[in-house]
Amino acid sequence: MTPSPTLQWIPFRWQSARLGERDFPHAAMFLLGTLPSLDGLQGWLQFDLGAPITILYEKAFSPAQQERIGEHPHRPRPAVLNGREMPVVDLSLHIGPWSIERVAWFLGFGDDAPLPDDGRPILGTLGADWAHGHIVVLDFPNQRLSRCEALPPAWEEQARWAPLRRSAYGHVVLQITVDGTPRWAMFDTGSSLFHLLTDPYQWQQLTTGEVSETFPITAWGESMEVMGGPARARFALGGQPLAVPIIHYLEGEDRRRFLEDNDLVGILGNAPFLEHILVLDFPRQRCGVVPPTARAF
């Protein structure tokens, strides 16, 4: 009999934020990273599956460190974020026992401020390229993460499975049901605090139509106003109900067109999964919810 795989886990930590009149304790999730070629420098990276590529922020590093990073080989094709090109550098970044061997270099972005109560800086963003080709397990109740190649058989049986695909740009897209109808939604750990973020038209269809809160957010240096109101629709993944009490929307033709072009009902953050174990199985193009009462591995 093949032994059940033992998962390797690393902890993640939450960063809270106060937006408008509300406090969000799960506004962003961070993993500790190490850069061996910079004398083992350690710092935090926001885990953001909405970013197709892993990014280091130039201004998070000292001038001497910036120079050393610039000496690494550059790939011929740059990465593009919101229409802005970024050099791609062959540089090893370690996240626990796993690594990625290339990063985008976001010039002129970031700062060297540490996370609250921690002396280590925020170095960048860990993107979806770190996850692709693997199984990523997000154990939200126990605040830990694993990247693996196989799941314990018990979890294979207990998980509620649904299809997963990648967009043309590398975004992670999950199939959910909305009032029993299959729909696609982008899963974005970088939009952590949201249950569902959509456009104004779909928001009207999915909610009571009453705006109950507004607050500002900042994404990649761009400030935006978010509106939200009580959900009317019911959501599930693989038959497992998802808690979506409130749905938010953003104005903007580019955002509306992105959802329309990719046939998306919206963008799911971490909020619907905080009581669940979420499995993203990229090789088998599926996602699953494991009951939090399942045996620990």
Described by the principal axes of the CA atoms, the overall outline is globular
Measured as a percent range, the helix fraction is 10-25%
User: SS-based structural class?
Assistant: mainly beta
In round numbers, the mean pLDDT is 92
Number of helices: 4
- Give the biggest beta sheet: 11 strands, mixed
Relative strand content? 35-45%
- Note the run of SSEs as H and E: EEEEEHEEEEEEEEEHEEEEHEEEEEHEEE
Distance between the termini: 18 Å
In total, the number of strands is 26
The residue ranges in which pLDDT falls below 50 over 5 or more consecutive positions are: none
Features:
297 residues, mainly beta, eleven-stranded mixed β-sheet, 26 strands
Description of the molecule:
The protein is mainly beta. It contains four helices and 26 strands. The strands form four sheets. Strands 1, 13, 14, 15, 16, 17, 21, 22, 24, 25 and 26 form an eleven-stranded mixed sheet that branches. The longest helix is centred in the last third of the chain and has 9 residues, at 253-261. It is globular and about 55 Å long. The two termini are 18 Å apart.
What's the SSE blueprint?
Elements: E1 10-11, E2 13-19, E3 22-35, E4 41-47, E5 55-57, H1 63-70, E6 79-81, E7 84-86, E8 88-89, E9 93-95, E10 98-100, E11 103-106, E12 122-126, E13 135-139, E14 144-148, H2 153-158, E15 160-166, E16 172-178, E17 181-187, E18 197-198, H3 200-206, E19 213-219, E20 222-230, E21 235-237, E22 240-242, E23 246-249, H4 253-261, E24 264-268, E25 277-281, E26 286-290
Parallel strand pairs: 4-12, 5-11, 17-24, 18-23
Antiparallel strand pairs: 1-14, 2-3, 3-4, 3-9, 5-12, 6-7, 8-11, 9-10, 13-14, 13-25, 15-16, 15-26, 16-17, 16-21, 19-20, 20-23, 21-22, 25-26
